Amino acid sequence: MKTLTSIGPANRIARSEETHPLTWRLREDAQPVWLDEYQQKNGYAAARKALTEMAQAEIVQQVKDSGLKGRGGAGFPTGVKWGLMPADESMNIRYLLCNADEMEPNTWKDRMLMEQLPHLLVEGMLISARALKAYRGYIFLRGEYVDAARNLNRAIDEAKAAGLLGKNILGSGFDFELFVHTGAGRYICGEETALINSLEGRRANPRSKPPFPAAVGVWGKPTCVNNVETLCNVPAIVANGVDWYKTLARPGSEDMGTKLMGFSGKVKNPGLWELPFGVPARELFEDYAGGMRDGFKLKAWQPGGAGTGFLLPEHLDAPMYAAGIAKVGTRMGTGLALAVDDSINMVSLLRNMEEFFARESCGWCTPCRDGLPWSVKVLRALERGEGQAGDLETLEQLVSFLGPGKTFCAHAPGAVEPLGSAMKYFRPEFEAGIASQIPAARPIPVGA
Question: What is the pTM of this model?
Answer without folding.
Answer: 0.91
